[in-house]
Amino acid sequence: MDHFQHRNGRLMAEDVDIAVLADAVGTPFYCYSSATIERHFTVFRDAVAGAGNAPPLVAYAVKANSNQAVIATLARIGAGADVVSLGEMKRALAAGVPAARIVFSGVGKTAEEMEAAIHAGVFQINLESLPEAEMLSAVAARMGRTVAVAFRVNPDVDAGTHAKISTGKAENKFGIPIDTALEAFALASALPGIDPVGVALHIGSQLTDLAPLEQAFTRLGALIAELRAAGFTVSRADLGGGLGVPYAAHAPGPPLPEAYGAMVARVTAGWDVRLTFEPGRLIVGNAGVLVSRVIRVKSGATTDFVIIDAAMNDLLRPSLYDAWHDIDAVEAKPGRMTATVVGPVCETGDTFAEGRDIPAVEAGDLVVFRTAGAYGAAMASTYNSRLLTPEVMVKDDAWALVRPRGTIEDLIAQDRVPDWAR
Ligand SMILES: Cc1ncc(COP(=O)(O)O)c(C=O)c1O
C-alpha cells in the first residue's frame, strides 16, 4: 500500500496534487511520501519485533535512497542505518541517526573509513575478509580502541534474483566462505582492537521468494552453533536486507514483511542473539515516484515512441537490469496506446519500456514511474550534462523540495581547465 493514488482523476501524493508539484518544480523530479516511508518502516519493525533475544536493530540501508530528508524521517522514528561508505556514514549522522545504531558494511572499506567509523563509535563493523580484519585491527589498535565486528559470511545460496544484484553465491565478491568462519573468528580473537561478536549475511536484493533466505539463515544458525562449540561467544546476527517489493500491479508481489518476520522468528528461535536487519528497498521503494513530462510522440518504422524528459541518468534500473516500473498518467484520460517509452539520452539503452500498453498520452502530458523510491535518485548521474534529478517530499498536504535542481552553470564551474588545455 502506498500513498500515490488517483482522486477525482488526478494523481495525488498523499494530499498533494502531483500536477501542481510539476508546475512548481519542473520535470523530471522524484516525489516521496513520508507517510509511506514511515508506514513501511513500522510494518517491518513490527514484523521482526519478536525475533531474537532483544528488540532487533533495524538499520535502513542508506544506499537505497540517501536523501537527507528520507534518512531523517526514518531516524526520527527509531531507525538505524546500514552504511557502506564514509559518505553514507556522514549522511546518516547528519540526519540524526545515532552512531550506536549504525552498521558499517561494504567489501572495500579503506583505513580512512575504518578510522572514521571507530571515531564515530558505530554499533558494528561487518568484515568481509581476513586482510580486512587485519587492517581494522591495526587501525583500532593505533587509536587505542576496540570495535565490535561481525563476519559477513557467504553462504553460497542462489537468491533467485537478477545476477547483478545477487550477492550470496560462492563466486560473488561478498563475505568470507562460510566454511572459513571458524578460522576467521580464531584469527580475529587473537588480534588487538577488534572484538568478534557476531555473524552477518546478505544474499541479494529484490528477493521474491523466502526459501533462499530461509536456507541461508539455517546455514547461519548452524555456524553459530559451531562457533559456540569451539568456544567463541556469538551475541549478534545480522540478517541483511533484500526483501523485494511489488513492481508490477498486474503480477503477484513478493512475500509480505509479516511472512518474512514469521519465517525469521521460526528459524532463529533458540539462537539467543540480538538480530540486525538491513532493509533498503522495502522501506522506500513504493514511497517514491519519478514524475516526467512527455516531450513528444514520434512514429517509428516499427513502433510509436513516447519521448519523455526523464532519462536513464534519472532512473537507471530499466537500462541496467531490464527492470519493470509501472507507468501511469498523472491526469487520467480515456484510452490506451502501445508505445516504447524512451528518454532523450543518446543511447538505445535509454529505454524505460518497450512496446508497453500505457495510458494514451500526448506532448505535454505528465507520466509517473511507480516504485521509484529505491535505487532511483540514489543512482542518478549527470550523463549527457543533464542535471541531477530534483527530489520533493510530501507530508499530508505539505510538500518540500528536499533536493533542488542545480544549474548547468554550477556543473560547469565544478570542472577546472588547466592553462595548457585552453
Ligand atoms: C550489505 C547490504 N545490506 C543491505 C542491502 C539492502 O538491500 P535491499 O535494498 O535489497 O533491502 C544491501 C543491498 O542489496 C546490501 O548490500
Automatic annotation (TrEMBL):
Domain (Orn/DAP/Arg decarboxylase 2 N-terminal) ranges: 35-284
Binding site for substrate: 281, 317, 321, 347, 375
GO molecular function: diaminopimelate decarboxylase activity; pyridoxal phosphate binding
Keywords associated with the record: Amino-acid biosynthesis, Decarboxylase, Lyase, Lysine biosynthesis, Pyridoxal phosphate
Residues annotated to bind pyridoxal 5'-phosphate: 242, 278-281, 375
Matches recorded under Gene3D superfamilies: Alanine racemase, Lyase, Ornithine Decarboxylase, Chain A, domain 1
GO biological process terms, semicolon-separated: lysine biosynthetic process via diaminopimelate
Residue numbers carrying N6-(pyridoxal phosphate)lysine: 63
Keyword field contains Lyase: yes
Enzyme class of the recorded protein, top EC level: lyase
Active-site positions on this chain: 346
Reactions the enzyme catalyzes: meso-2,6-diaminopimelate + H(+) = L-lysine + CO2
Orn/DAP/Arg decarboxylase 2 C-terminal domain residues: 29-373
Cofactor: pyridoxal 5'-phosphate
The keyword Lyase belongs to this UniProt entry's keyword annotation: yes
EC number: 4.1.1.20
Pathway the protein takes part in: Amino-acid biosynthesis; L-lysine biosynthesis via DAP pathway; L-lysine from DL-2,6-diaminopimelate: step 1/1
Assembly behavior: Homodimer.
NCBIfam families per UniProt: lysA
Job description of the protein: Specifically catalyzes the decarboxylation of meso-diaminopimelate (meso-DAP) to L-lysine.
Family: Belongs to the Orn/Lys/Arg decarboxylase class-II family. LysA subfamily.
Name of the protein in its database record: Diaminopimelate decarboxylase
Organism (species): Sphingosinicella soli
